[in-house]
Write a structure and sequence with these properties.
4 strands, mainly alpha, transmembrane helix, transmembrane, lipid biosynthesis, membrane, single chain, two-stranded antiparallel sheet, PC_trans, about 5% strand
């Protein structure tokens, strides 16, 4: 007969039958283990956030350094930068549209993207043709004295618009020939998508390039105002933000928006006044090979010329008392008043370009437009406000500031396009006689 002693187990069956009750020590160890595991995930998230901030900050300084370097190298490099940015933005935006069947949601039905020539080839063809037309217009307008004086460039200048139109027609015919039954709705949707992208992106970039050619200050200062406003909106929002501004961007606050407005006004006047003293920044382009280290001079636009106004006597007395010396006049430049307008637009209107982009991303359920810039997302995420600011600057400048006057290039364009050879020779003979009567020797 077998006997069982207390605490003795004689068979595996009895051991399995008896439930194991965890001891208080094991419970405590399990609790401590869970508590130590939880901070590990939090630490990983915190580490990722720090790495993202570090990467974002590093690439911010890289972009600022590269931007300033290209600015010093000259107008041509700034134009290339704008063309690069517009190309990346166009690629990111057009990539959002996938060409799938509009008639069926069958997963087995093939995706036409990559097979249909429109999905890749024709949209880039239209991009190239649009750039050819717009930049050709700028070259002809700003470099008439070169284009119309060169026999090889003359056919390009006189027939530029017809050439551009015929190139567009070729693309249009190619699109019609690429239509496929079962995908018509999507193909026509992509056609509209690409043309709207060309209108918003390429045409805006064209105006920004014209700002560069009118004088770097009309590109550099407005772009700086947008960046400044974005930074101040973040700072004021972090410090005092409580009231949401718009549902499309939950992180934007009314306090940040208002604080950035006043901060940008002050920054804009100081920043613009600093650069308006530099001929390299205010002179329209005449030589694309010029840079910041070359000797550049021009007759400045009247908005950059300092003026003096007399103060109202009570104000003059009050200021004299406050400062301790007599003040009866104040010097200013009209450009400073224009800076207030530009700063106001950069603060109150340009941010809506960012809100538009935020709504765009929500519509496609994406966080960023791409990964062109590490830590910043896509190029579109950085250029959304700049396009709107660039177009406004061009319209504002050409409407209220730019001077219309006769140039050698405009006269040469009229002579070449409006007079035949015999009339041109007659004009040369008459002009020669006129100069000789003025005592000026004309080289033969």
């Amino acid at each position: 007969m077998l006997t069982l002693r207390a605490g003795q187990v004689t068979s595996p069956q009895l051991e399995a039958a008896v439930p194991k009750v965890p001891s208080p020590e094991s419970k405590e160890r399990s609790k401590v283990g869970n508590e130590t595991a939880a901070p590990t995930h939090a630490q990983e998230d915190d580490m990722k956030k720090r790495q993202n901030v570090l990467e974002r900050t590093l690439w911010t300084f890289i972009m600022i350094g590269g931007f300033i370097t290209l600015l010093l190298l000259g107008h041509a490099y700034m134009i290339l930068l704008v063309m690069l940015c517009q190309t990346l933005v166009y690629r990111e935006v057009t990539a959002l549209f996938s060409l799938k069947s509009a008639e069926s949601k069958d997963a087995n039905k093939p995706d036409l993207k990559g097979k249909d020539p429109w999905s890749k080839t024709l949209n880039w063809y239209f991009f190239a043709v649009t750039n050819y037309f717009l930049y050709g217009e700028s070259i002809i307008y700003y470099f008439k004295h070169v284009v119309f004086a060169d026999a090889q460039l003359l056919p390009f200048a006189t027939n530029h618009r017809m050439i551009s139109f015929m190139l567009y027609i070729i693309g249009f015919m190619g699109f019609v020939m690429s239509l496929k039954r079962g995908y018509l709705k999507q193909q026509f949707g992509l056609f509209c998508w690409v043309h709207m992208s060309l209108l918003i992106i390429v045409f805006s970039s064209h105006f920004i390039v014209n700002n560069i050619l009118e004088g770097l200050i009309w590109f550099w200062v407005p772009a700086s105002l947008v960046i400044c406003n974005d930074c101040f909106a973040y700072i004021w929002g972090k410090l005092f933000g409580r009231t949401p501004l718009i549902a499309l961007s939950p992180k934007k606050t009314v306090e940040g928006f208002v604080g950035a407005f006043w901060s940008t006004l002050i920054f804009g006047v100081i920043w613009g006044t600093l650069f308006m003293r530099w001929d390299y920044m205010i002179c329209p382009v005449h030589d694309l090979g010029a840079n910041a280290f070359a000797s550049i001079s021009c007759k400045p636009n009247p908005v950059f010329v300092w003026r003096t106004i007399e103060l109202w006597r009570p104000i003059a007395s009050a200021l004299s008392t406050m400062i301790g010396k007599s003040i009866t006049t104040v010097s200013y430049a009209p450009y400073q008043l224009h800076l207030l307008t530009l700063s106001g637009f950069a603060s109150l209107v340009a941010p809506f370009g960012g809100f538009f982009a935020s709504g765009f991303k929500r519509a496609f359920n994406i966080k960023d437009f791409g990964h062109s810039i590490p830590g910043h997302g896509g190029m579109t995420d950085r250029m959304d406000c700049q396009f709107l600011m660039g177009v406004f600057t061009y319209v504002y400048y050409t409407s209220l500031i730019r001077q219309s006057h006769v140039t050698v290039g405009s006269i040469l364009q009229t002579i070449v396009s409006g007079l035949d050879v015999s009339q041109q020779l007659e004009l040369i003979a008459d002009l020669t006689r006129y100069l000789e009567k003025q005592g000026i020797t004309v080289p033969r």
